[in-house]
Amino acid sequence: MQWQMTQTKTQPLPLRPLQSFFRLLSCIRLDEVIVLQGPPLMGALFSITNISTMGVHTISALLVGNLCLVAYVFVFNDWAGIEGDLKDPNRASRTFVANGFSRTAVGYLALCLLALSLLAFCWIGAIPFALGLTIAGLGTLYSAPSVHWKGMPLVNSVLHIVGTLHFLLGYMTFAGINPRGVWVGSFFGMVFAAGHLTQEARDFDGDMLNSIRTNAVAFGKSRTFVIGFTLFTAAYTQLAMLAVFG
Q1: CA distance linking residue 227 with residue 223, whole number of Å
Q2: Residue 135 in contact with residue 169, Cβ under 8 Å?
């Protein structure tokens, strides 16, 4: 009897739903999500003429929407690529499966994030909603197992010009389409594409293991790194020219 009581006392209590929810949120790559809040915020600051109470509310909704949108893209990417990540010794210990979550739970998390982001953009206006939906669609095509643009050389790099859309998401919240917004936004698109090429060079071994035909796998790790470096250089050259010409 005493042994049974001891066993009962030492058994861990089941997690409450709220605790489980917050643990599930830990599956989001929060550091990467936060870094990618820069382009839409800069776009908003480039186009807003005066900061009123409504403007503050709109920027807040924009940041919430983009936070959930980028989180959706990363969570969906992890959900879609979990089988390959589990085979990769460099990633297996950092997957949501290693943290005790099922693929179903993470799939629902991705859908909730997408719904929250689109609700926020819908509140702001039709153009931000359309841009948010486009970014979400491209992110889905990049990771979805049946399409998997991630494994299509060159196509996956062109897709990362979507960084331009992230900037325009903020810019077009307060202004319409114009050459100034597109030119400035293209800087972020080139930086996104260059950063992705560098990441492909870093992840070469894991992508080879999982037969994912990235640019690094198709054209070589060193060559891809050099192209990424060249694209970074071009992006910052463009930034200097934008500054010179106002």
Answers
A1: 6
A2: yes
Tracing tokens 């640019």 back to the chain, one arrives at 215
pLDDT tens-digit series, residues 221-243? 899 999 999 999 999 998 899 88
Q: Report how far apart, in Å, the C-alpha atoms of 191 and of each of 12, 34, 169, 231, 232 are.
A: 47, 16, 17, 7, 6
Structure tokens, 69? 């949108």
The string of pLDDT tens digits covering residues 75-110 is: 998 898 888 778 877 777 888 888 888 889 889 999
Cα distances (angstroms) measured from residue 96 to each of 145, 181, 184, 185, 227: 18, 38, 37, 33, 33
pLDDT at 8: 42
Q: What are phi and psi of 36, to 5 degrees?
A: -85, 15
The one-letter amino acid code at 165 reads: L
Length of the chain: 246
Please give the structure tokens belonging to residue 123. 């509140």
With tokens 């739903």, the residue in question is: 17
